[in-house]
Amino acid sequence: MEFRYQKKLDCLGSQAFLTIITDQGNNFKDEIFKELINKINVFENAFSRFLSQSELTKFNELAGKKTKISPEFRDILIVTKKMSELTNNIFTPFILPSLQKAGYITSWTNKDVISPDFKNRINSPDFSINIGSDWAEIPKDSALDLGGIGKGYLLDQLSDFLKSKKIDNYWLSLGGDIICDGQDINNKPWCINCSDAIDTNLTIDSIENTNGRKLAIATSGVTKRKGFRNNKAWNHIIDPKTNEPIASNILTVTVTANNAVTADVMAKYILIEGLSKAKQLIEDGQINGFLVQSLDFSSKIEVVKDNIN
Known about the structure:
The protein has helices at residues 26-47, 55-61, 71-86, 96-102, 150-164, 260-273, 275-283, and strands spanning 3-11, 14-22, 67-68, 130-131, 135-137, 170-174, 177-181, 191-195, 203-208, 215-221, 226-229, 232-235, 238-239, 244-245, 250-257, 289-295, 301-306.
């Protein structure tokens, strides 16, 4: 008999929910959760910009030099570079100095954790990552932030792991970014609610993985990670054309795609470039659907969606 199991944990500056369906018993279930949690912890310890000893921080400290990197770091850099090129550098990992200058210095969940300081470095549209067989190099005076792609990348890795263990029915959430496959314990599609951009207790829509297909869902917005610095409002979405936090009437963008990296990056791409970009990505087949919440001229939330279900 199959059972539904779930674990909840704090990680990556947010919360994770790991849900699996299996008939293999408690020992198997415990081993699966142990491995999933270990993969999350290893990833965070390696690629968090808030940890002074992370591989990412050490790499940033050596900007301008060929630096030996782990196989996983090489893999995520390859994916990051590909997505940057695909979005014409609107998605860029070189935003860390701009993020810190804007005010995003401390961990969102623990204000005592301060990010190593790279705010005096710069960002340029000409910056690129050179990647070798076991090394990588970024321009001198630059610094990477993987927050725009990290959760999506990790979700895809966790999904591949579950498939390798022949777990076909699962639902994983990292800070609200989701990947799911198969069906819930009641043999129905997984159903994910979309919250109102302002009042997150309100549900404005829902998304299902129809026919049990694999589906990734990511939401990006300016309603949560924001603040004031030097009497100036900031949010954590940097427009690479200005190197400043975006100024837009769009509050949140939710994207569905076949993989979590695409959903994660494209949600931010649309948030920066606007609704017309979302429609273009649908037409080009790069995403499956989108839901955009924005403020109209009367300060009411307007919802535009296309093929979100």
